[in-house]
Amino acid sequence: MRVLVIGSGGREHALAWRLAQSASVTHVISAPGSDALRGVGRCFDVDVTDHGAVGALCDQQGVGLVVIGPEAPLVDGLADSLRALGLPVVGPGAAAAQLEGSKAYAKALMDRCGIPTAAFSVHESLEEALQALRDGEGPIVVKADGLAAGKGVTVAPDRATAELAVRECFEGRFGRAGARVVLEECLEGTELSFIALCDGRRILPLASSQDHKRLGEGDQGPNTGGMGAFSPSPLCDDRLQARILSEVMEPVVQSMAAAGEPFIGFLYAGIMVGSDGTPRVLEFNVRCGDPETQVLMHRFRGDFGRWLLAAARGQLDTVAHETDQVWDSQAAVGVVFASHSYPSGSRKGDVIQGVDNADEAAGVTVFHAGTRAGQEGWETNGGRVLCVSALGIDLQDAAKRAYEAVGKIHFDGMQWRGDIGRQGV
Ligand code: AMP
Ligand code: GLY
Questions:
Q1: Does 64 contact ligand 2 (Cβ within 6 A)?
Q2: What separation in Å is there between the alpha carbon of 291 and the centre of ligand 2?
Q3: Centroid of ligand 2 to alpha carbon of 270 (angstroms)
């Protein structure tokens, strides 16, 4: 089988890397891909908003499965266009992708289905939102409704910060994504990434993982796309997993199927687990997490191509019995390197030293996110640059190995957290 991976980031590098090692897969190609993805298979510089061009590429290359990595092409309906051509696709159609594309849509669905989440209100005008802020109490979370590359959420400790965030949304900081604003009760607890593969009806949870959203150690500083991840999460025992499946995932998948918009692809619930063990949904994503995917792929030992094809064809029952065997019993810890000035900006062109050296260490794999091949080797080419993932007998051992490899890499302006995985130990 020839598989096309849509995207160019760290998540796609990890997906393509694992797919290329699947017995069922002969070739992995990418669009648009990256210099690092070229190490896995051919990359095609196709504009993925041109659905006709992507379809033509599939035809020309004899593609038997398409995996769409990022949210933007999903919200844009690429999965619908490719399915209309008869292609098996991993990724929901535009209607189901609204779960991530509009936070107001996701909240309304959670309300209808009785899914536990923070209390909220939705506002279409600045005056209305400011009035709601004046009426409320305590810390509040301000969210731009639409896609904002992980930057549309402000957890405001006080009214003034919340008001500023609301004003920024309506003043166009996030373009159309901020024309509607969701205000939410601030939840406390530990965040868990719950990611499952869905075939429209069935749900196959991947191994558990946790992300580190804040830029700084000890969860300080601004929110980012994710500064590191680990798997498994000791927080997610069988009981919690069963609760999340029955209280969150099943209602969503059933509601989508009933609406004639079956959810095929990766459904990601960002969950806040309260001190009493209650899971509440922070957000849904309609794709794999980044950098969670890097550590999950590192641990996956089965034929990932076969799993994904089964999901795309509505036949997850054919692989469900493998879930107990495919996850390596070792833990994985992935440390993200970000570039100078991330997340407010991202400096490009800094030469990166030591990548190969780190990659050669036992149990270590370096996944590339924002890199490019320059005259002197790898250079930075985006906000999040690399994810150094290591396997170890437990989280502590994996973290030790990951940080030994991290120490071999250097570039000007590099930022990384020294405490990835500590929360799980
Ligand atoms: P989201 O994109 O909605 O997941 O928000 C990004 C991050 O903001 C989450 O991963 C949490 O760290 C934080 N966050 C979002 N919603 C809330 C909430 N209601 N209470 C506390 N933190 C939140
Ligand atoms: N790591 C969080 C996300 O992918 O949204």
A1: no
A2: 7
A3: 8
HSE-up (13 A, CA, CB side) for residue 413 = 20
Q: Where are any strands of DSSP class E within 133-262?
A: 140-144, 153-156, 181-185, 190-200, 203-205, 210-211, 214-216, 220-223, 228-231
Ligand 2, closest atom to CA 11? 4
pLDDT tens per residue, the chain (425 residues)? 999 999 999 999 999 999 999 999 999 999 999 999 999 999 999 999 999 999 999 999 999 999 999 999 999 999 999 999 999 999 999 999 999 999 999 999 999 999 999 999 999 999 999 999 988 877 899 999 999 877 889 999 889 999 999 999 999 899 889 989 999 999 999 999 999 999 999 999 999 999 999 999 999 998 899 999 999 999 999 999 999 999 999 999 999 999 999 999 999 999 999 999 999 999 999 999 999 999 999 999 999 999 999 999 999 999 999 998 999 999 999 999 999 999 999 999 999 999 999 999 999 999 999 999 999 999 999 999 999 999 999 999 999 999 999 999 999 999 999 999 998 88
What's the number of CA atoms in the CB half-sphere (13 Å) around residue 291?
A: 34
Q: Which of 300, 328, 298, 320 is nearest to 389 (CA)?
A: 298
Q: Report cis status (omega within 30 of 0) of the bond before 343.
A: yes
**pTM > 0.85:** yes
Distance 225 CA to ligand 2 centre (A): 6
Distances 239 to 236, 244, 277, 278 between C-alpha atoms, Å: 8, 9, 10, 11
Nearest ligand to the CA of 140 is 1
Tell me how far the alpha carbon of residue 6 lies from the centroid of ligand 2, in angstroms: 17
Ligand 1, CB within 6 Å, residue ranges: 118, 141, 143, 153, 155, 184, 186-187, 191, 213, 223, 270, 282-283
Strands (E), 232-338: 263-273, 279-285, 331-338
Distance from C-alpha of 391 to C-alpha of 370, rounded to nearest angstrom: 23
Cis peptide before 291 (omega within 30 of 0): yes
Whole-number Å distance between alpha carbons of 394 and 230: 11
Strands 65-68 and 203-205: unpaired
